[in-house]
Structure formats: C-alpha cells, structure tokens
Amino acid sequence: MLNFLEEWSFFGGSILLIFIGLYGVLSRKNMIKILISLGLMDTGVNLLLVALGYVEAANAPIINSVNPSNAAAFVDPIPQALVLTSIVIGTAVLALGLALVMKIYDKYSTLNISEIRGLKW
Amino acid sequence: MKFRNLIALVITAAFALIILQAFTITPAAGEITLNEFGKADINNRTAQLYLNKSVNTDNKKVIYQESKNLESGSANIVTSVVANYRSFDTLGEITVLFLAAAGIGVVLNLENSKKKKFAADDSSLILNTGIKLLFPLLLLAGTYIFVYGHLSPGGGFQGGAVIATAFLLKMLSDNKFEIKEISITLVESTAGISFVGLGLYGLVTRGSFLENFMATGTVGQLFSAGIIPLIYIAIAFKVGAELTNIVKNLIEA
Amino acid sequence: MPLISSFLILIMLAAAAAALAFDDLLSSIIAAGLVSLTAAVLFYFLKAPDVAMTEAAIGAGLTTAIFVLALFKTERGKSE
C-alpha cells in the first residue's frame, strides 16, 4: 500500500502538475497568470524527469566520506544534470516573458489578452 | 468566459488521455519500456559509465581520497556530467541564458524610458543594516557553493544564483547602490571568453573541444578534478552576472 | 518517507490549483513560490541535492522576486 502510494504520488503528481499548468495557460486571460502557469508546467516536467531516474534505497550521486566508493547503488545522475540547467533557463525565459508583458502594458494599459487590440497580421 | 474554460478543460483532458494510453500499452518483446518508480535500471544506462568514470578508459573502481588520475576527477558525479562529459551542452545552455538576458535588455530599452525605481524612498534603518550585514555573508556563501562544486552538492549555477540574490537584496534596500552596466558586461564576457578559451586550449593540446588537459589528482581533494573547478567558476560568474543583469533591468524598467 | 512525500505532493498540487484560482495576482505569485519550495524538498527526497539547491535558490527565490517586480510595474488588479 505504502509503496503504491509513493510510486504513484511522484509520477501522478508531477503529471497532474503539468496538466494544471496546461489548463491555466489555456483558460486564463491575465498575462501574468499565463506566465505563472508556464512556470508550474516547468516545475512539473523537472520533477517527472528526476523521478524517472530514482532508484529505491540508493545514494545521491556523490562520492564522499559517508559513501566512499562507487560500488554502492546510486540514482541516475544524468536527469539531474539536465534539470539543473533547465531550471536556470526556465527562470530566464520567464523573465523575458515578463519584460514583454511590461512593454505591452506600457502600450495598452491592460493585462487582459482579450482587450489587446491592434495586433495586425 | 465559461465557454473558454470548457474548451481548455477539453484540450487538457485530450492530452491526459493520450498520456494515460501510453501507460496502458503492453510492450512487445524486446521493446524498451519505462521503469516503475524506484526501479530505474542504472546498470544498463549510460549513467553507469559516468559513475565508473570509464567512458574512454576501462575503469571499475572509484574510492574516495584514494583513486588517482581518473578521466574525470570530480567526486560529485552530477558536476562531472555538467562540467566535463557534457560541458558542450552547458556552453549552449549558458548561451541561451545570455540570449534571454540580452533580449530583456533590448525589449525594455531603458535609455528611452522614464525611470521609476522599485525601492521605497527611505527604507528603514533595520532593513538597511540587516542587509549590510547579510550582503557579504551571502557573497561568501555563494563563493563557497561554487568553489566546492566538485566535492559537495552545489556548483556554478547555484552559487551564481545566490550571488545574484545578494545583489537583488542590496538593490531593493539601498537607493544609492548602483552597479554600472559596464562592470556587469565585463564580468560576463570575461567569464564567457575564459570558458571558450579553456575549450579551445583543450582542442589545441588534446585534440577535442573542452577536453580535460590538466592532471585530475585524487578524488575528494579541493585541488583536483582538472579543469572542472575552472569551468564551474566561469559558469558561476557568468550566471551571477546575467541574473543580476536581468534583475537590474526589471528594477530600473 | 512515502507518507511525507505524498503529503508534500498534495500540498504542492493544492498550491498549484490555488495559484490559478486566486483573483489577487500577488497571492497567486506567492502560491507559485510555494509550489517551487515543496518541489525543492521533493527533489531532496529523490536524492538530487544539486537540483534541490537550484530549485530553492532560483525557483523559489529569484522567480518570485522577478514576478513581484513585474507586478509592481504593471497592475495588481483582479484577474479572470
């Protein structure tokens, strides 16, 4: 029972977080709310990637005085290395989006995407 | 309004169905499937090569404070993946970061906009003094995190973020505190050039870009791991300067 | 440990739903920061201390600050 709970809480929870973010991106009208939802999706994807590399009762991939040899079991270090950079880039891209939102607000004085007219294609 | 939420719900549910379907497919013989939670098969993954430090050599054993001259001398395996085995990826990633920071500068176009600072006109004495005390400590913590990145959890990205947070606090509390644009640019470009320079030196002396050209030493000592600490210091300065630049642009916009 | 992590995931999902449901944008940003913070603890439970540090320093700290700065430049109005 407890194992089942742990197994599905990580996979299910992170996938659910991605879907909450997706629903937010699609349904909200406020631009800052949309960017918040994008950040939630980002967190969900990162959590799912790290959970895929988890090994039960294994160690963090660091060789130190507590764990002095590589004969012991380790979790997968590659997803961790990917997620490490993905978090930093996610924040930078969100900041770029916020800069665009601030510029749009200067021009239209609104954050509501359905009130922004004058987009000519 | 209601209709919009309904459409969003339908699209999300469709995505969810596709994902759920992928979980119910029974794999044919010989097909690779997702492992259950907690049962990732490390022995058959690339990770095993990184853990044994045996991508090019045939090594099976790494012992703390004993093993010498391994192909990557970092005790933290994540660091050895980020800053050695896949450092070309990392170079691409900090380029993305640089482009995002440059994009923010272009979009906000500070020279033509009226300035309105975020900080209150007079921040209280307690806030000012507290941050005066906290600022050097935060810089010290960030430096510790990136210098010890190859031995303990941490590294250039985390250390750079902590340093950027220190500058954020300083900018919020102190009205007169200003970082010159030119000094941020100088730090950032010096760090970027030294990263690429380390890579080019490896290309010239060892034959491939970003290859380790220094002795790797004993696993677990501060002066070990070849070029990994140098690369992580360059990354820390670059990430710190870029995040500080982003925050500064947003504050002054 | 399974119970703690499941409980934290419940908190995380509740905070994510709250971030979408709140009318006030500042409350919404703080709820998103809570999601990042619980995610950092979960990364630690998944034996990823490097990622946990990054998420705590950048995801929970800097991102929240950047959102609040942008909110100050725009409007803290009601959203739909």
Automatic annotation (TrEMBL), chain A:
Its main location: membrane. The chain crosses the membrane at residues 6-26, 38-58, 78-101. One of its GO terms (molecular function) is quinone binding. GO terms for cellular component: plasma membrane. Gene3D superfamilies: 1.10.287.3510. It is a multi-pass membrane protein. Keywords: Cell membrane, Membrane, NAD, Quinone, Translocase, Transmembrane, Transmembrane helix, Transport. GO terms for biological process: ATP synthesis coupled electron transport. It is an enzyme of class 7 (translocase). It catalyses: a quinone + NADH + 5 H(+)(in) = a quinol + NAD(+) + 4 H(+)(out). Its EC number is 7.1.1.-. It comes from the Bacteria. It is found in: Cell membrane. Belongs to the CPA3 antiporters (TC 2.A.63) subunit C family. NDH-1 shuttles electrons from NADH, via FMN and iron-sulfur (Fe-S) centers, to quinones in the respiratory chain. The immediate electron acceptor for the enzyme in this species is believed to be a menaquinone. Couples the redox reaction to proton translocation (for every two electrons transferred, four hydrogen ions are translocated across the cytoplasmic membrane), and thus conserves the redox energy in a proton gradient. HAMAP family: NDH1_NuoK. NDH-1 is composed of 14 different subunits. Subunits NuoA, H, J, K, L, M, N constitute the membrane sector of the complex. This is NADH-quinone oxidoreductase subunit K.
TrEMBL record, chain B:
The chain crosses the membrane at residues 90-110, 131-149, 155-172, 184-203, 223-241. Residues 64-104 form the MrpA C-terminal/MbhE domain. InterPro entries: CPA3_antiporter_subunitB, MnhB, MrpA_C/MbhE. It is found in: Cell membrane. The keyword Disulfide bond does not apply. Belongs to the CPA3 antiporters (TC 2.A.63) subunit B family. This is Membrane bound protein complex subunit mbxF. The lineage of its organism: Bacteria, Bacillati, Bacillota, Clostridia, Halanaerobiales.
From TrEMBL, chain C:
GO terms for cellular component: plasma membrane. It is a multi-pass membrane protein. Keywords: Cell membrane, Membrane, Transmembrane, Transmembrane helix. It is found in: Cell membrane. The chain crosses the membrane at residues 29-46, 53-72. Residues 10-76 form the MrpA C-terminal/MbhD domain. It holds the Pfam family MbhD. InterPro entries: MrpA_C/MbhD. This is Membrane bound protein complex subunit mbxD. The lineage of its organism: Bacteria, Bacillati, Bacillota, Clostridia, Halanaerobiales.
